[in-house]
Amino acid sequence: MFRDLVNRYATPFVTGLFVISFVSGLSLFFHVGTAAFRGMHEWLSLVLAVPFVLHVWKNWLPLMSYLKRGWLVWPLGVCLVAGLAFAVPGMVEVGGIGGNPQMAMYRAMGDARIADLAPVLKVTPEELDRRLARVGLTGVDHATSLAAAAKAAGMEERHVIFSVILPH
């Protein structure tokens, strides 16, 4: 019964979930429908692991034949190198370069002096004070950083930064 189900459905499920992963991945790559496709891509790509494992189990003997003949080694090696080519630059910072640029900007905003943020955000210092007051930060020294002001007030830095950047 189980073997019959695996033989009948493993490959079609791998194919269907791969198509979903491919289409949603293209959408994410081209930044089209990101909100609609991100969750689909992440979750269904994880679900793809189940029929993939069943497919490998079903085709174990042919797979071992590929391994014995060396036909499996170099394609897996190429895939590993391709994956590392994308992963390593994001994991290693060389000379301060690397990582997520949005997180770098977030850290820069938090570390910046409050006096320096008004021109960057294209607002007056008074407007910046109003935005800070909306989250409960009043009478803040403009020579201090946004992160330090949030910490001194016992507030979450992220919340303060977002309230200054997105004043709604």
Task: Please explain how this structure is put together.
The chain is elongated and about 70 Å long. With 168 residues, the chain is mostly helical. The model has no long low-confidence stretch (mean pLDDT 89). It has two domains: 1-58; 102-165. Helices cover 75% and strands 0% of the residues.
What's the structural blueprint in terms of helices and strands?
Layout (H helix, E strand, L loop, with lengths): L1 H28 L4 H14 L1 H10 L1 H10 L3 H19 L9 H11 L2 H8 L3 H10 L11 H7 L4 H9 L3
Give the H and E element order.
HHHHHHHHHH
Gyration radius, in Å: 25 Å
User: Low-confidence spans: pLDDT under 50, at least 5 residues?
Assistant: none
Summed up, the domain count is 2
The proportion of residues forming helix, as a percent range, comes to over 70%
Q: Could you describe the largest sheet, including whether it forms a barrel? A: none
